[in-house]
Structure prediction request, 199 residues.
Amino acid sequence: MRIFLDLDGVLADFFGGVELLYGVKFDPWPKRGAYWLADIMPNMTNEKFWHDTAGPTDGIEFWSELKVYPWANDLVKFAEDMAGPENVAFLTKPVLDPYCAAGKTMWVQKHFPEYSRRLLIGSCKEMCASVDSVLIDDDEKNIEAFDKYGGHGILFPQPWNSALKFDIDSVYQQLGSAKIYIHSLTSHHEGCLPTWRTS
Prediction:
């Protein structure tokens, strides 16, 4: 089994960075299920955010200085225990500004240096999907695409997606179920078995 962990919204506190950048506070979350800044901040557009976090100074600083979520280290360790450290990688989607990728790389080097050579940066996360791969991501579109391409997506619960509440234990449980399901497929090659997802 291979496990891909998203950065922003799973390990790195993206919206915490937005709070610091604009002096706002998202507590409680302004609009359940709202993902884009334009949906939760008056007069905000994607273009404005990209402008404010672009370039060799602002672009690198915003992404490299995001705080680590308090559960991040435990989640990485759990994934390593499930699949082996050599089968865990970080998979993150950058914005178009090239300094975003540089900032994300610096973030990993600072907080998870052992993953500096296991960091994948690209928009098409579904290209990493396979019968033995799992993606943990907070973006439902990424999960849907990963599933469509034959992988196994686990939606990381956040107030901007359809998860009803934050429950890190549910992520662990789903990862355990995915491991059992993937093992059954790769060991017996008997075609599609009932889904590993639990209700």
Notes: The mean pLDDT is 91. The longest helix spans residues 168-188. The chain has one domain: 2-188. Helices lie at 14-22, 37-40, 46-52, 58-64, 72-83, 98-111, 140-148, 168-188.
